Amino acid sequence: MTLEGLLPELAVIRKDFPILERTLAGGVPLIYLDSANTSQKPQVVIDTMVDHLEHHNANIARAMHQLGAESTEAFEAARDKVAAFIGAPERDEVIFTKNASEALNLVANTLVWPGERQVGPGDEIVITEMEHHSNIVPWQLLTQRTGATLRWFGLTDDGRLDLSTIDELITERTKVVSLTWVSNMLGTINPIAEITRKAHAVGAIVVVDASQAAPQLPIDLSAMPVEERPDLLAFTGHKVVGPTGIGVLWGSRAVLDALPPFLGGGEMIETVRMEGSTYAGIPHKFEAGTPPIVEAIGLGAAVDYLAHIGLDAIHAHEKAITGYALEGLRSVKGLTVLGPLDAAARGGAISFELDGVHPHDIAQVLDSRGIAVRAGHHCAKPAHARFGVQSSTRMSSYLYTEPREIDALVEALEYTRSYFKLDRA
Amino acid sequence: MTLEGLLPELAVIRKDFPILERTLAGGVPLIYLDSANTSQKPQVVIDTMVDHLEHHNANIARAMHQLGAESTEAFEAARDKVAAFIGAPERDEVIFTKNASEALNLVANTLVWPGERQVGPGDEIVITEMEHHSNIVPWQLLTQRTGATLRWFGLTDDGRLDLSTIDELITERTKVVSLTWVSNMLGTINPIAEITRKAHAVGAIVVVDASQAAPQLPIDLSAMPVEERPDLLAFTGHKVVGPTGIGVLWGSRAVLDALPPFLGGGEMIETVRMEGSTYAGIPHKFEAGTPPIVEAIGLGAAVDYLAHIGLDAIHAHEKAITGYALEGLRSVKGLTVLGPLDAAARGGAISFELDGVHPHDIAQVLDSRGIAVRAGHHCAKPAHARFGVQSSTRMSSYLYTEPREIDALVEALEYTRSYFKLDRA
Amino acid sequence: MTAQDLDALYQEIILDHYKKPHGKGLREHAGHTAEVHHVNPTCGDEVTLRVHVSDGVVEDVSYDALGCSISQASASVLYDLVVGKSVDEAMAIHQAFLTLMQGKGTVEPDEDVLEDGIAFAGVAKFPARVKCALLSWMAWKDATAQVVAGDGDN
Amino acid sequence: MTAQDLDALYQEIILDHYKKPHGKGLREHAGHTAEVHHVNPTCGDEVTLRVHVSDGVVEDVSYDALGCSISQASASVLYDLVVGKSVDEAMAIHQAFLTLMQGKGTVEPDEDVLEDGIAFAGVAKFPARVKCALLSWMAWKDATAQVVAGDGDN
Ligand SMILES: Cc1ncc(COP(=O)(O)O)c(C=O)c1O
Ligand SMILES: Cc1ncc(COP(=O)(O)O)c(C=O)c1O
């Protein structure tokens, strides 16, 4: 079957991902619909890492020998690739962390300490009810520790941000607005530009969690008008076909320079004396210790791979698959999708409920047919609470997903209904 | 040539490390003497990572499907392997971080916040003048931020801890003693048991930086008498033939339970509500976000590899090579070794000065002959300052180092002397 | 898992308990009771469980649980197995259930002790689901320990 | 690097400047001066450098430097090249040296402008050493900018 917008070379792309050849217990082939959780890795990412480990491995920056120079060059080239991937105004504004969670904590953690941007009692931090726990807990810790107040954008019934309260939420007291670009549970794409403009008008900084956006939306920070450009943006390597152990924090030089150091140690210093130390400039200031070298290099290969296919094409593919999936899911009796129903206005993660079957049980039946989905709260408990559900089942596609996999999902959901004898109850 | 104590299967072991086949510019074979900076990786570590990425990749804990179960099992098995490697009393006391630096910062960072162990004005933290920057800067940040005082063990002229001041340093005011087990610059092996006993007697906790110890000394925490067992111990994956992007913090359950959370986010929570969150037990409490999954799995393979060869055998090998190297270096005119001269009492990192040539220039000449050493301050500026030097050259061996590589180093140092015409000056 | 594994997991007995759980709901009691709230952090399953003990006998176990079929059914089976037993007997049953669940599918359950609980033998093969089956049992143990220690209301 | 590269890096001129650096030492001056301290964080090389400008002319550059042959020689060459020149001329020379060093070995140096500085062409091929060569030049630019902006002592 062909669908408008699908990647033309889909069969070729699938060949790039060795795991897609896997068969599971009972000889069932794998149907991987859990890419919002973590994406699969193309051969080129794996090979790049292997080549590094087998031929160029050395510590970076500090090593003067040839392996050290090769390793440093590969690591810094990865920074250039990531900078290009998000259109960063400056390559030194790209900081490597271990995942998106660390990137978000880096920001929340350093805002506690003396500096231009220090947060204190009376200040307000605004987040949203659809955030991933990694963009909630750091701010809860920050506000508990500083006496600042945490405020929340609510959600509309169809899973969008409720912007009707924006003027009460974003005020002169607001120091930081932190929100996700694309929801990992509801799929919602948030109006980052509008909110950033509003936050900047009151002098607040904006942190964008791009963990779900980076895999599927073209991002070009340089092309954004400054008023609408977030000050900080985080994403995670393993969701953009890169390895685990690597994440990215991009920040404008002005804001990063104004933050005090996060972790202290090797590589982040200018000089260390017993009486006190001074720190290196960005990006090194925030990269204490031996960084995830081979992981950064793998991430460089990953974003190159995505860029080669083209983020516009990937986005179109996601939209096509998501639209097809929404349609298919609608045909299943008793199934309710949480979040926007318009494929054009959302990302590729679709969470749903099926009357009478708990998400774990759905996932288990699906798994017996080789279909991998996620069941649970997807690290978004407040969003689940908002919709009065304790957990949900989530399917999430990516550039390697085929329509026939969606067909298999829909069929397996029908099977689940019959397995649990829902029509007899 | 054979030397007492060398690993019997040295030639076979070398074959396990693909990079050792590398030739450099001009066809010169690689002589890698920079293992204290980062170690090379055996094929089994690389293959384990590739197998995971190609066949089992999935996010852990949260994923209920077969790939998720395989990935979780492999990740948690890696924790068991690491626990066994250091003889941890409990496997849940092993926390995965991104490197040793993060592990040390985790401790220094959480001691700032309310909890049984909170540090405040008047409290004292004791470290030593031979620490790596990663075990200095976190404590400088902690003391600056809490009003506590940082105190230092000095060094003797032959590069050992000056224990004569121990009674003035470790007192009722001491809350934490943090020190390296083996110095990455001087090679010194510190009397951890003695210092821990002393610190415990005054109720202080002891943090041991085992970044250089873990690669070469057998560690068995369970076998240590409790009074002499450190409370926390950190090391880094890339120095124990594992990948970058992974480090370990071991801590006794009692101390880890008493520390507040470090980074907030997915996986470290029990429940998240808008009004506040509660946290999971160890180890998850300290593992926010998607952990370095494939890196932990690679580290598991790495410590298994080392354990298979045997840490006693590796330690004996290191001693033999270090003794041989100390002897060879002594033959070079104008060369001074910094640190203890007795191979039995030190680790395998040997830093030295060569009269009349700057360390960079030495490293450069060595590099033209394929010999990789480190030149600089080795992230130990206070220790360099203590010995009145700004930088030094460091050779460091590991389980794959052969005596002929030491011969090549000595010969290249002679060549360096002639290249810079030292005898004519 | 295969389709066969699936059937081993979802035994009829489990599905029956799931559809018609025994003892569900929170009940008030005079005397020694303790209430606990346990959560499975990974999936969000929750249980609030109250234990009422009198003269060393488990008089009632009442609970409010949100979760999958396995976790619901296991609370129901727990209720059947421990109510009316002495605390010691009940703890022994708890131990038998724990042993079964942690046995990775290798432990042969004793029907005399575990009754409907033997249906959970299939669950033991799925590490991800063992936590579901144990949620209410762990909560029960915790609450009972509190009553016995006198921490509960009395 | 090969033995040939090594010779390209350590040209005689560089080694001569290293052994007998020109203008080394910190000197006191009345009038417009500024002092800066720069460090190469990776290797620890350090320079304290003082610039004395009068009537738009670089009257003196005095320095105290700890570092390798490349960094020492480049401070010496810097001294030769900029002292006595107008600030504008000196800045142009600085720019030419910078271009050479950042050219990865592809830039052909102009001997009329850079004099002994052309010996650093070989260094440009070694990224790890470019920083050494630039340390004092960056310090000089920083200090000179401060004097010109009037931030220095006067
Ligand atoms: C003694 C010591 N401590 C800490 C570290 C820091 O390790 P990492 O850079 O992997 O965090 C190192 C190595 O660089 C070390 O040698
Ligand atoms: C929206 C969002 N934010 C943050 C994260 C955290 O990413 P990581 O677990 O890699 O830190 C995730 C993924 O789990 C996510 O989907």
Beta strands of chain C, count: 3
Give the class of chain A from helix and strand content and strand pairing. alpha/beta
> Helix count of chain A?
13
Q: For this structure, what is the CATH class of the largest domain in chain A?
A: Alpha Beta
- Quick one: overall form of chain C? globular
Residue stretches of chain A low in confidence (pLDDT < 50, at least 5 long) are: none
CATH T-level topology of the largest domain in chain A:
Aspartate Aminotransferase, domain 2
Instruction: Report how far apart the termini of chain A are.
Output: 36 Å
The average pLDDT score of chain C comes to 92
| Widest sheet, order of strands of chain A | 2-8-7-6-5-3-4
Strand content of chain C: 15-25%
Radius of gyration of chain A: 22 Å
Q: Which ligands, by name, code or SMILES, are bound?
A: pyridoxal-5'-phosphate
> What is the assembly state of the chains in this entry?
heterotetramer
Most extensive chain contact? A-B, 98 and 98 residues
Taken together, the total number of domains of chain A comes to 2
Sketch the major β-sheet of chain A: 7 strands, mixed
Features of the shown structure:
heterotetramer, A: 425 residues, alpha/beta, Aspartate Aminotransferase, domain 1, 7-stranded mixed β-sheet, 15 strands, globular, C: 154 residues, 3 strands, 46% helix, binds pyridoxal-5'-phosphate
